[in-house]
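Researcher: Next entry in the queue.
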Amino acid sequence: MKKLILLFSLIALLLGLAPFAAAQGDIETLCLVTDIGRVNDGTFNQSAHEGALEAADEYDLEYKFIETQAETDYDANIQTCIDEGFEIIVTVGFLIADATRAAAQANPDVYFMGVDQFVVDGPTNYVGIQFRDDQSGFLAGVLAAQVADSLGSDTIAGVYGIDIPPVKKLRNGFEQGARYINPELNLLGVYIDSFIAPDRGASVAMQFIGEGASVIFGAGGPTGTGGILAAAQQGVYVIGVDQDEWVTSFGAGETDGSEYIISSAVKRVGQGVFDMVAALVEGMMEDFPGGGIYLLDVALNGVGLAEKHEADIDDAFFDVADAVVAMMISGEVGTGIDQITGDLLPMDMMEEQAAMMGVETVCLVTDLGRVNDGTFNQSAHEGAVGAADEYDLEYKFIETQAETDYEANIQTCVDEGFEVIVTVGFLIADATYAAAEANPAVYFLGVDQFVVDGPTNYVGIQFREDQSGFMTGVLAAYVAEWLESDIIGGVYGIDIPPVKRFRNGYEQGARHVNPDLTILGVYIDSFIAPDRGASAALQFIGEGASVLFGGGGPTGSGAIVAGAQEGVYVIGVDKDEWLTTFGAGETDGSEFIISSAMKRVDQGVYDMVAMLAEGDLSAFPGGGVFMMDAAMNGVGLAPPHESDIPESVWDQVNALNAVLIAGDIETGVNLMTGDLLE
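Model: Structure for this entry, 678 residues:
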């Protein structure tokens, strides 16, 4: 669906359809029309009002709101904003969508944004601010099922407002999430044909409590709130919706029963409204998806669970919910809910949609080097081959011979119609960025490329080299201590940020173990100069180095081969160099390679290509980075293989690295530049 929306937006921009009369930063007025309800009712009316009010304060806008009393007032309330000359009109709720679309079509010089409104191929002055209600509902169900189990209960329930798509997404998400934890749960639920009937919500909640419900979810304005207030005051656990209802409906703990609200399925409506108003006021039209939607999901932290506040439930229940969020982002868990209607999707329809959206071709362009050179070129190639085999993709690779070939090699992939292009290395980043901007219908994945606010079809696959370098330095320092040596060294390629992160991480890790170590090191201005790497290694050995780290392609590999063949312990980089550079023990000196600072490049490439092949764009971090760190096993140390390093040394290394993984040690290295932090 995101791909479809991007396509509509792109077509509109190419055709010059977007209105610019009030863009370019000269907007001064903002009007909001609520759904049935008020701006202090604790629902998305209030949250939208707060976002609009924040934007008005930030940009010194004239601001007005109109509270809708009945559905028949929608058209008139919007027209009041138009007649009074407001340049941006925010409308709240699914039910007001038709009136908003009609007004946008009739008034192309006014910008409209509709909260909870699904816009596809709409007027280009109209954006729907949408939320993955199915995801937040799913997480509420995950939490409710665990709480019910802890109470020895097999029944939970939901009190819902009118069965419009956003409410159906919340209900079906809640029930899907609960069944994800316990397929045998008894799930009670009812839609009530009003959003402003708290007495009816309370009555239904009492009925469900009588039927054994141990947790009640309320989703549907004051109606749902009435349900959870009544239930909480009977000592039954409840979950709110839209905002953190412990703060709103339960008065931040001042209302009776507040200790029984365990969370809320929150939608960050205010943030969505603020973002869109800010884009218009600042003239950032590329950030205003006219005719489509601005979708806030778990990957953007646009939906999720509020904290438990006073509730006496186990924190571990939220840990499980966090794990589910991670799996949603990675694509391992889906809600199975139609994003337009809110209905459950048949499995065959889900598979059909994925097949329609999935890519079929992938092309890889190496950095200087080859796909069998034992560096990240080879690892990226192996990840791409793995994905191509798994998803039956057409695959091609181009090996770069000189930096001047970067643009031409990428263009070859573009000209041949490849849908995904993987480029390898920091040095090819500028060419990749330019190609992504010029080819918005092609996806670009850049290994070792740091992407911030880039084109949405471009992702940088990044690794915490500072962490793997730190681990390597810890190992080198403990080995030097075992050898009664006070000197270690490192031979590095060109001093680009990833290599600097390795070097500075290595030196920081070694000094963490022994601040008095002498650490020798040199950058060599080529990644493909193994003879120069070897020469530097031999020089450092002559100066007393007992352990050598090689970080920088064949240059670093040349250093560690020369060092190992002199009987000095060495550590490789990127991949397990005992397997690659030392031929799985067949190369002389293999018994002296004690580990490698690994980056699991193949896994990163595979994950991103698989996501695109499956059509799961909800988890594609377009315009940013896919960061693989120690906590997710994206970087780490290779096994020692033949080396005779005592287990006691490894025990020390593993213990300290566990502290690093837990986040209790920082490397002190800048993640963008690779320099040491002050």
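Model: The longest strand covers residues 29-36.
Researcher: Noted, moving on.
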